[in-house]
Amino acid sequence: MTRSVCVVFLLVLLVPPARAFSLIIQNVEYARVGEHSLKLDVYVPHGKPQPALIVWVHGGAWRSGSKSNMPLSTLVEEGYPIASVDYRLSTQARFPAQVHDLKAAIRFLRAHGTNLRIPSTKIVIADDSAGAHLAVLVGVSNGHAELEGKIGTNLVTSSDVQGIISLYGAANLTTILSQSTPHGLSVRIPALELLLGGQPTNVVDLARLASPVFHVDPDDPPLLLLHGDEDPQMPIDQSYELQGAYRRVRGSVEFEVVNGGAHGGPKFYDPERLAIVKRFLRQFSDPSNRN
Questions:
Q1: With 0-12 CB in 10 A as exposed, 13-18 as middle and 19+ as buried, what is 272?
Q2: 59's torsion region: left (phi>0), alpha (psi -120 to 50) or beta?
Q3: Cβ atoms of 93 and 134 closer than 8 Å
Q4: Which of 73, 104, 171, 222 would bridge 242 by S-S if both were Cys, CB 3.0 to 4.6 A apart?
Q5: In angstroms, rounded to a whole number, what is the distance separating the alpha carbons of residues 190 and 195?
Q6: In terms of Cα–Cα distance, which of 144, 43, 38 is closest to 98?
Q7: CA 273, CA 275: separation in Å to the nearest integer?
């Protein structure tokens, strides 16, 4: 156990959990980049946890947001362990720094799972909006040298994930602007400028590297997509493109269109949608599933 894990673990034991969790382990440092400390929070459920760890990647147009914005407390109460991860925002570092950080977090969680009291063999990465874009990119780039990075101290540990959940995320940065509403453009143009250092038409190779659709292959993990058909900010065509990329290689993909759904909101976390998520997660409880 690293010193950072030890210190936080002892502190959390002294603080009663806010909800029906066994532990909330906050501000665990998983890596450092210069003077920048990269941290995550771990939500440990009561009793024996489900066999897959959910890694939550917050949204915020790549330039804002926090690991504290973790909306899946209901799943923790039902036995699903979750690690919510902070990463360098686009105001701090350009792409692919964000993916390098997330892969470092996965390596850390896998290396320290026993000490953190969480499963670490099967990992499902999930999130919404820009975070979902990063989550999918991490998931479909298992073993990609340019996206792996060299962040953290667990470089020999695998950063592979076994499942992906995307809630209204981006999938193709080379087409997203042409699909966007005027409101979407007002958000996406400055956000892409920060993330890529230029618009996709001016940094084509980098935009392709940052687009999950160009990384999909038959060995990619199962994918669950949820997207609202009235999303004014993230075009639903982004999820259709990703679904199409999976289908072309005969990958495992499920797409739930949320009728009347906008960009986020309670519809994505209501009992109906959480039931879909839990059904997707059940495949990782099957001992015959080798993913």
A1: exposed
A2: beta
A3: no
A4: 171
A5: 9
A6: 38
A7: 5
Per-residue burial over 68-100, b = 16 or more CB atoms within 10 Å of its CB, e = otherwise: eebbbebbbeeebbbbbbbbbbbeebbbbbbbb
DSSP assignments along 104-166, one per residue: HHHHHHHHSHHHHTS--SEEEEEEEHHHHHHHHHHHTTTT-HHHH---SS-TTS----SEEEE
Do residues 83 and 40 lie in contact, with contact meaning Cβ atoms separated by under 8 Å?
yes
What pLDDT digit, counting tens, does each position of 1-55 carry? Answer: 444 444 344 334 334 455 556 789 999 999 999 999 999 999 999 888 999 999 9
Which token pair is 238? 């982004």
The secondary structure of residue 267, as a DSSP letter, is G
Identify the pLDDT of residue 287.
Answer: 53
Q: Is the pLDDT of residue 168 over 80?
A: yes
Give residue 172's Cα distance to chain centre.
16
pLDDT at 242 over 60: yes
SS3 12: helix
Largest interatomic CA distance in the chain:
52
- CA–CA distance, 36 with 39 (Å, rounded to integer): 10
Query: Which amino acid makes up residue 105?
Result: A
For residue 49, report the phi and psi dihedrals to the nearest 5 degrees: -75, 160
Question: Closest by alpha carbon to 285, among 126, 162, 165?
Answer: 162
